[in-house]
Structure formats: structure tokens, C-alpha cells
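Intended use. Records like the one below are meant for learning the mapping from a protein sequence to its folded structure. Do not use them to infer anything beyond what is encoded.
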Amino acid sequence: MFTNPVPDIESIGKYYGTEKYLSHDTNSNGILGNIYKTVRYFNLRGKYSLIKNFKTSGQILDIGCGTGEFLNFMKQKNWETFGIEPEVKAKEFAINNYHLDIFPESKLNEFDKNKFDLITMWHVLEHVYDLNERLGIISDLLKNDGIFINALPIIDSPDAKKFGNYWAGLDVPRHLHHFSYESFSQLANNNGFKVIGSFPMKFDAYYVSYLSHQAKQNSMAFLRGLIDGLISNFTADKRRNYSSMIFVLGKS
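Structure written out for the chain above:
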């Protein structure tokens, strides 16, 4: 599934500059901002624990690294870190605060092939215009035994079905593509990858449900978000169609 109409590349940047786009907001406060930071704190540790099962050291490229919190965490764990971030404010924050090596998207065509042990995209692929081109580039940059980790919102998750057009995981027009487990697996296979593991991001169900209630201007959005997030995760345990999922891929 895809968003239609799609903003052109020249104009889409304005949708990332808003203070409501928290992954690029360096000064997010209030209930929403604090919830986001708390979830991010636990997610960073969860991501690292997952990665250790597949790779313990090497060179990592995080595409769409935002303000750099994940790369900074990995740097502290002795990984050699590189990031790609097109949004200028977020990129400058990552460079100035964490002293990271962050580059514009054009750098993807300049890295040496077979350079990286690990490439990550945390809720980023859905923002990319040309999916096949991007996956081809990732395949070229990844070592033969390298790992590609990709996190995505899942369009047929229980909370997505509940909220319909109000589901915060749609995030239009920033999200250009919307994946199910099956459609992403097929896309990966078509581009020379195989799924070697998949894992839920259970925090996302609560957070996205809360945002969705806010979008509907429902009362007690926070409490209702907790309840609906719990229901979504419980229901998804049967089909593994969680609100967001992490896919671990290797070259096929």
C-alpha cells in the first residue's frame, strides 16, 4: 500500500520541520515529548540486545539516524559508527552533541562496497521514494555476512485496523509506503535478502494508540492508549502482526 498523492522530493522536507515530528525534535517536552523519550530510552537498550545476537562489533551505518541517539549508544559500545540524515537540523544536532560522522543521502553512492557489518533503518524505509533502488544500495554496501535490520509499522496490525484513517502509524504524507509482514518479506526477497528473524516492538502499540486517540480528539487518550496497546499486543501474539516489527535480514 502507498500514500497517494505523494509530495515531490523538493516539498516534502517541510513536513519534517514541524515540532510535532518528535524523532527530529531536539527540544520535545510535555507529556508527549517525555513519553517519546522514555520509550526511546528502553528501545535503545532493546535494539542493542537484539543486535548482539547477530553481530557484536564492526562498522554500522544507520540510515535516517535522526538526532543520533542510537548511533551514540552504539559508539559507546565500541562500534565504528556512520549515519545518514537528510534533515539539516537533526543532522547538526547529532554532529554537535554526539560528535558523530553524519552524511547527506548522496553519501550512500560514495561509500565503498561491502563496507558495513550492520546497516539499520529504524522506521525509515517507509519514507523512501524508490524502495528497490534503496535496497539495492544497501545490498551493495553490506558485507556478504552482514546484517540488515529494518523496523516498520505494520499496516494490518490490530491497532491499525481499529483506528483506520486515524492510525498514527500511517503518518501521511511522510510515510510513502505501508507494509504488512508478508509484503515486506516479498519486497526483501525480490531484492536479494532473506528474513532470518522478526521481533515485535511492543512499546509502539501503546504509543501509537495514544497518538491515534489524540488524533480523534478522544478524552483520556493516554489511558485509552494504554488499554488499546495492551489489546493490540495480545491479539498480535497470535498472528505476529504487531503495531511495529523489527526484521533482521541477511543476503540470500
